[in-house]
């Protein structure tokens, strides 16, 4: 099992992050840099299948899906790169507002973020990123557990808070509140 590696105790901005040339993948969470380990084969299979299913669903829609590495920058309005402390590379990101897209990735909250759990990322995905995505009002956040074949779906409520997640298991039909007619084939997703 690989462990999550923090760069050091210093806080970094997105402007500094852009200058790194070490060939590693990093995320900034409140300015703290975390190294993203290479995903497992199982992780890649689930990610690839999910990308395929969602990309097929979005074919005639204005929304775009991106897979990691793809920077999603969270910052306040009018903030420069030097003032941006939160940059993530979700496994999958769906954005419908094209004005949020630029050559660096996405600036602002995507409509849907999907993280696929790895042993090293559990704490970040379930706690830190959940709070971050809620803070910046990501409409829906999926946490996929590829070993248990489960999906947890957090949806932003009218109070701009994530309520109790919906949990989807083998045999259930995954539903999204953002894309109400999207269905995910669990057999295909998890190779069941």
From TrEMBL:
> Boundaries of each Putative restriction endonuclease domain copy?
15-184
- Which Pfam families does the UniProt entry name for this protein? Uma2
**Keyword Mitochondrion among record annotations:** no
Q: Which domain of life is it from?
A: Bacteria
Q: Organism, per UniProt?
A: Desulfosporosinus hippei DSM 8344
Keyword field: Endonuclease, Hydrolase, Nuclease
**The keyword Hydrolase is annotated on this UniProt entry:** yes
Query: Could you say which residues form the signal peptide?
Result: none
One function term, GO molecular function aspect: endonuclease activity
This chain's protein is named Endonuclease, Uma2 family (Restriction endonuclease fold)
Q: What is the lineage of its organism?
A: Bacteria, Bacillati, Bacillota, Clostridia, Eubacteriales
């Amino acid at each position: 099992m690989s462990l999550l590696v923090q760069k050091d105790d210093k806080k970094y901005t997105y402007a500094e992050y852009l200058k790194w040339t070490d060939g590693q993948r990093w995320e900034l969470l409140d300015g703290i840099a975390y190294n993203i380990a290479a995903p497992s084969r199982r992780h890649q299979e689930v990610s690839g299948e999910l990308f395929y299913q969602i990309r097929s669903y979005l074919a005639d829609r204005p929304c775009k899906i991106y897979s990691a590495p793809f920077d999603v920058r969270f910052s306040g309005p009018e903030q420069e790169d030097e003032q941006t402390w939160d940059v993530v590379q979700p496994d999958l990101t769906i954005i419908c507002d094209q004005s949020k897209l630029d050559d660096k990735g996405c600036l602002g909250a995507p409509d849907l973020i999907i993280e696929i759990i790895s042993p090293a990322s559990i704490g970040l995905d379930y706690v830190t990123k959940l709070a971050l995505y809620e803070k910046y009002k990501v409409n829906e956040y999926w946490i996929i557990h590829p070993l248990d074949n489960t999906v947890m779906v957090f949806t932003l409520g009218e109070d701009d808070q994530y309520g109790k997640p919906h949990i989807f298991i083998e045999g259930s039909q995954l539903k999204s509140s953002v894309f109400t007619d999207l269905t995910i084939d669990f057999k295909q997703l998890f190779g069941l």
